[in-house]
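Encode chain A's predicted structure.
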Amino acid sequence: MYDLGPQLRRWSLNLFLLWGLSFPTNDLTAECSFPQDFHVVKSDNTSKRLFIEATEAQVASIKKMASFLQRLDRIIEHCEPSWKGKWSASFFSDPKLAGYKTESALSPAVESGDWGKAYVAEYDRKTEILTILPLDSAKRRTRRYVLGQPAETGQAGAEDAFRLPKFELEGRLAKIFEVTDCEYISGITCRIHYNGALPLPSHVFFTEFDEQGQRSGKRVRLIYPKLEPGEKGRATLRIRLARPAKIVLQGEWNGPWQDPY
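Encoded structure for chain A:
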């Protein structure tokens, strides 16, 4: 008599694989109770990414995002521990366009540019950086939100993490430099405007101070490009403190500008 056992087992295995491929399991949007501030459209469990509906105004609100990200992080840690500290989120103004640009269903929107316009922000839990308008080079900006604070201080902790230090320019440096648009990137990155009232200093150094006014270590060389009068450039401060309260910049004029590298 013909033994159907091996054949039936193969059929069962094939059906199981087809079922698993057709109906993904462990969908976080179904299993987790997310905060209602924003609508979580879907999740990519392989890449540990959430796709969330939000407007540019919403993601630009420091208080709103600090509170939402803090609660979202706690829910993810409780609901899906394997995502802890590794997840990311993409925010779209149109929920119909929430997804990867490589998805075939989104190809027309990618071609027309609508997908890029709807992509209003991205948060990376590993780096703790929120990037607003990531595809718009002219308007793109970043903010740092440190999560994992106690529930009663989470919002304040996240806002404090974003708060930038006070900058003081000493002596002649204050007459020629204006420091603006600082962000937590590679330490702290700022835009410097040089008005040309005096020659560029040969070196610029900065010193960090904590909340108690205590100096943190020796002064550090500021990394910035050679600028012509009226020009602006990006300067990098490789800070030691996670959140310095004040940074003092000092210039030295010992000859022409010298490359900080």
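The first helix runs from residue 5 to 22.
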